[in-house]
Design goal:
This protein has 569 residues and is of the alpha/beta class. The protein folds into 2 domains: 303 residues, no CATH class; 132 residues, Orthogonal Bundle (Lysozyme). It contains 16 helices and 15 strands. The strands form 4 sheets. A 7-stranded mixed beta sheet has the order 1-13-10-4-7-6-5, with helices on one face. Strands 8-9-11-12 form a 4-stranded mixed beta sheet, with no helix packed on it. A hairpin with a 4-residue loop joins strand 6 and strand 7. The longest helix has 19 residues. The protein is globular, with a radius of gyration of 27 Å.
Length: 569
């Protein structure tokens, strides 16, 4: 996991590499980020130091004056709010970065806001970008704690505007920079496509990063196939994939960004901190470490990704050390493809291109939600609703499929059978909750109190009702709030949209499913009943339980899969 970096480290941990220069010019970095000691002296001190001092070579020093902001900063996500949620030590807050050859000028938030008045800065990347976005916004907020701001957040996009200055700082979450899409084959990582880049245009500064997720395998790997040039591959050498993806990103920047109007930087790879052997403590992990590594050179050496970022030749042992997902009887070529000829299995793996084109992988055992949730399947449910039902003209198959695009992991559980059972379970509950897509809202729900006044994170708005709405009958303020945040609507101020916009309605159902139901799907259908309405279990409403089970059995039969044990609760 990443950590929140402190003000003195903000520039040094960028390790910014300009995408339109072969090397970062330190003076330009200093000028654009506005590190200075006082508000009135401009950036002359920073520019002078930039020519004499390498800010990136230094060490951690203990400073009792730190931290310069605390966990009260309103922009820190709960998962990174270590002090609020019980981290036992606090010494890590008191370290600052000290360059060997100079003192790092203190960041001045007021000067930053004035210099960037009316401009937009966007971070694009994974949790490293999230940390940097949070650090910068908290730094600025600590200088102007009473300044009016507007914060808008979804799973993908966060936007913070300091209204008095017109400065907008945005975060676009993407693990790979290139596109990750949900299609019939499954979750596909497209190495030569960046359609998401439309959201990055019009910025005055863009700061990119990617690397961490390229090496993930198994359950933590968020894709099923890699696509390049219209062909699908089950896997390839991850450094090769990273190189190809980064090349696509660089081409996108060259084609779409005017360097005279937009500064573009690439954040380099942060040191790993999971395995103690990387810092000469092989028996340890980062779990009990309370001090930084004080050496002048990181023992683990330069990360492999550095060679890719700098377009250096890959070390010869890289390919040999990785099997790139090939079957046991296949070899991995220099370019990450699987095969049996000398081009794939030659001494050290051949340095040149493969002699023959790799054979695309034909997806097997993969289900597409759109193929399973057919028009006939949908019509078989909604046709049983009465003609006067509000949901009859509200719920549509297209609305559901549109919502699924926001939740590409839905209906993807490893095997085709398990995936079909999840889809059957979802619609069994939807059928029961909505009366075959008849109801868009809970019957007499508006007369009931679904406000948890003790929940301060998602406080109830006076006059708003949080009764059941949508396919899974979303209820309570503590569900409307985060569901809206995840799906780009204000769930607390506008809960009615769940019963007025069919796509939003299905998105809230999928949000609840992936958050609260998906974790127990493997325990059987009975566990999903308990997750959705535990009051029905243990004799609370056996009729409702049996109705859900009947729908589930029916839909499993339609999809050609058997039901598992543990059907009731």
């Amino acid at each position: 996991m990443a950590i929140l970096f402190k003000p003195g480290l903000f520039l040094s941990l960028f390790l910014l590499i300009s995408s339109y220069h072969t090397a970062t010019e330190a003076s330009k970095v200093a000028q654009s980020l506005n590190f200075n000691s006082t508000f009135g002296n401009g950036t002359s001190n920073a520019r002078e130091l930039a020519g004499k001092c390498n800010w990136f070579r230094g060490k951690w020093v203990f400073d009792p004056k730190y931290p310069l902001y605390d966990s009260n900063c309103p922009f820190i996500d709960p998962q990174f709010n270590c002090q609020k949620y019980g981290r036992p030590d606090s010494y890590y807050l008191k370290y600052r970065w000290q360059p060997f050859a100079c003192d790092l000028p203190r960041f001045n938030g007021l000067y930053f806001l004035e210099k960037w008045r009316g401009k937009k800065i966007m971070f694009v990347g994974d949790s490293l970008s999230l940390n940097q976005w949070t650090s910068l916004t908290c730094l600025i907020h600590s200088w102007v704690p009473n300044s009016k701001y507007t914060l808008f957040r979804t799973d993908v996009l966060s936007s913070l505007t300091f209204e008095d200055y017109g400065v907008k700082i945005l975060l676009y979450r993407t693990t790979y920079l290139v596109d990750l899409v949900n299609d019939k084959a499954g979750r596909v990582l497209k190495l030569d496509s960046i359609n998401n880049g439309k959201a990055w245009l019009g910025m005055d500064m863009l700061i990119f990063n990617t690397w961490h997720w390229w090496t993930h395998t198994g359950r933590s790997q968020p894709w099923d196939y890699i696509q390049e040039g219209g062909k699908l591959y089950k896997d390839m050498n991850r450094l090769i994939a990273f190189y190809k993806g980064l090349t696509t990103w660089a081409r996108w920047v060259n084609r779409n960004v005017d360097p005279s109007k937009t500064k573009v930087f690439f954040q380099d790879v942060s040191p790993t901190h999971y395995v103690g052997g990387d810092w000469n403590e092989p028996s340890k992990s980062c779990a009990a470490e309370t001090q930084p590594f004080f050496g002048t050179r990181y023992p683990a050496g330069t990360p492999l990704a550095w060679a890719v970022v700098n377009k250096e030749p890959l070390p010869k042992n890289v390919v040999e050390a990785q099997n790139c997902g090939c079957a046991a009887n296949l070899c991995c070529s220099q370019y990450g493809y699987c095969g049996t000829s000398n081009a794939y299995c030659g001494r050290g793996c051949k340095q040149g291109p493969c002699y023959s084109s790799p054979t695309p992988t034909t997806p097997s055992g993969v289900v597409s939600v759109s193929d399973i949730f057919t028009p006939g399947f949908f019509n078989g449910i909604i046709s049983q609703a009465g003609a006067g039902c509000a949901g009859k003209n509200f719920y549509t198959r297209n609305a559901f499929l549109s919502a699924v695009n926001s939740y590409p992991q839905f209906g993807k559980l490893g095997s085709a059978e398990a995936s079909k059972r999840e889809i059957a379970a979802f619609f069994a509950h939807v059928t029961h909750e909505t009366g075959h897509f008849c109801y868009t809202e809970e019957i007499n729900g508006a007369s009931r109190d679904y406000c948890d006044e003790n929940n301060r994170q998602y406080p109830c708005v006076p006059g708003k009702k949080y009764h059941g709405r949508g396919p899974i009958q979303l209820s309570w303020n503590y569900n409307y709030g985060p569901a809206g945040r995840s799906n780009n609507f204000d769930g607390l101020n506008n809960p009615d949209i769940v019963a007025r916009d069919a796509v939003v309605s299905f998105k809230t159902a999928l949000w609840f499913w992936m958050k609260s139901v998906r974790p127990v799907v493997s325990q059987g259908f009975g566990a999903t009943i308990r997750a959705i309405n535990g009051n029905e279990c243990n004799g609370g409403n056996s009729g409702a339980v049996q109705a859900r089970v009947r729908y589930y059995r029916d839909y499993c039969s339609q999809l050609g899969v058997s039901t598992e044990n543990n059907l009731a609760c």
